[in-house]
Design a protein that fits this description.
single chain, alpha+beta, Umud Fragment, subunit A, eight-stranded antiparallel β-sheet, four-stranded antiparallel β-sheet, 3 helices, elongated
Length: about 190
């Protein structure tokens, strides 16, 4: 009988531990941090296909999204997917693509921190060559780092603030390539 009581006590302890661990996981996943897998080459060479990024959900409640942030958001073309892109323009900014470069508030954006010198940015279906667009309130202009292979704001327009899930802050898998996410600083403001 004493052995059965010990086994029962161990099983109860194990069940309590699993319930508590599960509750902690749910709270962290729902309110604090969420993993995201990079799918595709749109953020190459800075973020590779198959890498896992940890996204901070809570930061958005206290700190606004700023230019240079890497954000995860609901795809504007498929609600079942999430995208990861770099924020180029914030509400009320004037953005324009001209001669292969991005201009924000009439200033040519210095993207040398994360783009190679030969990378050009071309207009798309939404942002036309040489035609400035003012970003509406509570919206953002986002681009992939691999400009030739990215579906982004040039094609489908601005990202509404409620669609943004969080700011990415850590690449954690593969472990050998783990690193903090670098948010760009720009020559504007």
């Amino acid at each position: 009988m004493p052995i059965l009581r010990r086994v029962y006590a161990i099983l109860i302890d194990l069940a309590e531990t699993l319930v508590i661990a599960g509750a902690i996981f749910v709270v962290i996943y729902a309110f604090l941090f969420r993993p995201f897998q990079v799918n595709g080459q749109s953020m190459h060479p800075n973020y590779e296909n198959g890498e896992y990024v940890l996204t901070n959900l809570i930061t958005l409640r206290f700190k606004p999204v700023v230019r240079g942030d890497i954000v995860v958001f609901e795809s504007p073309t498929n609600k079942e997917k999430d995208f990861i892109k770099r924020v180029i323009g914030v509400p009320e900014d004037k953005v324009m693509i001209k001669a292969g470069f991005v201009f924000v508030n009439d200033i040519k954006l210095d993207e040398s921190e994360y783009l190679g010198p030969d990378v050009k940015t071309y207009a798309g279906a939404f942002i036309k060559e040489g035609e400035p667009q003012v970003i509406p309130p509570d919206s953002y202009f986002v681009l992939g780092d691999n400009r030739s292979f990215s579906s982004d704001s040039r094609e489908w327009g601005f990202v509404a603030s409620p669609k943004i899930i969080g700011k990415s802050f850590l690449v954690y898998w593969p472990f050998t390539k783990s690193r903090l996410v670098k948010h760009a600083k720009y020559n504007i403001d």
